[in-house]
Amino acid sequence: MNLHEYQGKEILASFGVRIQRGKVAQTPQEAVAVAKELTEETGTSWYVVKAQVHAGGRGKGGGVKLAKGIEHVEEIADQIIGMNLVTPQTSAEGKKVHQVLIAEDVYYPGESETSEFYMSVLLNRAIGKNMIMYSTEGGMDIEEVAEKTPHLIFTEEVDPAVGLLPFQARKIAFNLGLSGGAYKEMVKFVTALYTAYEKSDSNLFEINPVLKTSDDKILAVDAKVTIDDNALYRRKEYAAMRDIREESPIEVEATALGLNYVDLDGNVGCMVNGAGLAMATMDLIKMAGGEPANFLDVGGTADAKRVEEAFRIILKDPNVKAILINIFGGIVRCDRVAQGVVDAYKNMGDAIQVPIIVRLQGTNADLAKEIIDNSGLAVHSATLFKEAADKVEEVLS
């Protein structure tokens, strides 16, 4: 589950991570009131107005602006709230901005210069350990840094059974070129950041940039946080932070129905049981010259009701030109799935206007093929992968 920047910062602050302070506002008028509160609490007279959407690169799309005085806050907030923000991480249509974060200006003048760093904490699945990735090149796209200057990206592996050791935090601060008070502050920052990642059941904490202020404070100016969905049952306070306005409406509906669904950009809808088979099915569609329109795992209970629900979800995508059902009958028998497909098709009537290919393999696969072939419906049956691929290619041509 993705969080907004202001929500991620709330979690960071709760674990002792120093953050750029700010408050969220839903309207331009509320933004002014928030700015006044922020001045009373922090003394800031300049304000950073940030669009709150689940996408990076907001500044490039005009979603992050500096208000040089409280008199400019309402005008800038009015420009951002309600806009469709287009960034490198959104679609061409962009994402509608419903709220803004009014944050303090932390780039204040001083005797020494400020520095920006990149830092993230995530799981390295290849080695089964957590990893802190960091760089001196903060404020830039980390992908660009990796491509052009890979030697400026450092990693520190952390055994989850042991946790982050003090020497590792010191090593990170040293590799970032810090000394004196900034060095000590970075050690504290890294330690608190790793604790926040571990204790919040997160998949990702990404801070870009981490700022060294002119008076050697270290703080998080941004925060991209992803919470592990599987841990939300014990993290009710984080589950309440979910903003479904930022998610695909189809995915939200599918989740409510208990379907594992991911919306994609292709033209062939997939209905499969099992994540591994779903990935193989998507490869099959690509090999047949199509593009998968979704990932949909119906699980082990592919009865008529569940198949009908899956049909309706898939058909909400206007780009779908065909549907491939690929079920392996292990826990669930193929003939029951086939009957479920036939019953669902009849229940939906004219709602289905695209070709359907059904590949059933496993227990009672022969019976399943007979049910499909004798149904009288415009459903193409297959038993082999190659046969299914040929039929997908045929209906798309």
TrEMBL record:
It is an enzyme of class 6 (ligase). GO terms for molecular function: ATP binding; magnesium ion binding; succinate-CoA ligase (ADP-forming) activity. ATP binds at residues 50, 57-59, 106, 116. Coiled coil: none annotated. InterPro entries: ATP-grasp_succ-CoA_synth-type (IPR013650), ATP_grasp_subdomain_1 (IPR013815), Succ-CoA_synthase_bsu_CS (IPR017866), SUCC_ACL_C (IPR005811), Succ_CoA_ligase-like_bsu (IPR005809), Succinyl-CoA_synth-like (IPR016102). Keywords: ATP-binding, Ligase, Magnesium, Metal-binding, Nucleotide-binding, Tricarboxylic acid cycle. SUPFAM superfamilies: Glutathione synthetase ATP-binding domain-like, Succinyl-CoA synthetase domains. Substrate binds at residues 273, 330-332. Residues 271-391 form the ATP-citrate synthase/succinyl-CoA ligase C-terminal domain. Its EC number is 6.2.1.5. Pfam families: ATP-grasp_2, Ligase_CoA. It comes from the Bacteria. Pathway: Carbohydrate metabolism; tricarboxylic acid cycle; succinate from succinyl-CoA (ligase route): step 1/1. Residues 2-210 form the ATP-grasp fold succinyl-CoA synthetase-type domain. The keyword Metal-binding applies. Mg(2+) binds at residues 208, 222. Belongs to the succinate/malate CoA ligase beta subunit family. Heterotetramer of two alpha and two beta subunits. This is Succinate--CoA ligase [ADP-forming] subunit beta. It comes from Lentiprolixibacter aurantiacus.
